Amino acid sequence: MRHHIQKEEALAHLAAEFIHTESNRQSLITVTRAYLTPDERRADIYFTVLPSEQEEAVETFLKRKRTEFRDFIKHHTNFRVLPTVDFMLDRGEKNRQELEELSK
Questions:
Q1: Whole-structure pTM value
Q2: Under DSSP, is residue 101 helix (H, G, I), strand (E, B) or coil?
């Protein structure tokens, strides 16, 4: 279990590094977490975007870069199984931030 969590954390870190080098920096993209299925064949990378008007453009950009990110994982890890990756907007984090703003 601990090893699985370490892999998820490594994927989140690698995704942040990859996005930092590949993005045009017109918006702030933050990787909030990574989810790796128990069989380690699929990974979801969750992110948030500021300003929020750029969410759709960033999501399209990241989905277009999935294959390149998978190659990036291959060259920066020693995973036995290379997961299929998808990028997903972290709506839970966005909702949490809105609730926090309302409670002030």
A1: 0.87
A2: helix
Q: What is the three-class DSSP state of 55?
A: helix
Tell which residue, 27, 71, 66, has the closest CA to residue 44. Answer: 66
pLDDT tens column, 30-86? 999 999 999 999 999 999 999 989 999 999 999 999 999 999 999 999 988 899 999
Pairing assessment for the beta strands 84-89 and 42-50 based on DSSP bridges: parallel
Write down the residue that tokens 């950009």 correspond to: 61
**Rounded CA gap, 57 and 55, in Å?**
6
Question: CA 42, CA 11: separation in Å to the nearest integer?
Answer: 11
CB 36 within 8 A of CB 4: yes
Q: How far is CA 62 from CA 19, 21, 98, in A?
A: 8, 12, 24
Q: How far apart are CA 103 and CA 87, in angstroms?
A: 30
> Using an 8 Å Cβ cutoff, are 49 and 65 in contact?
no
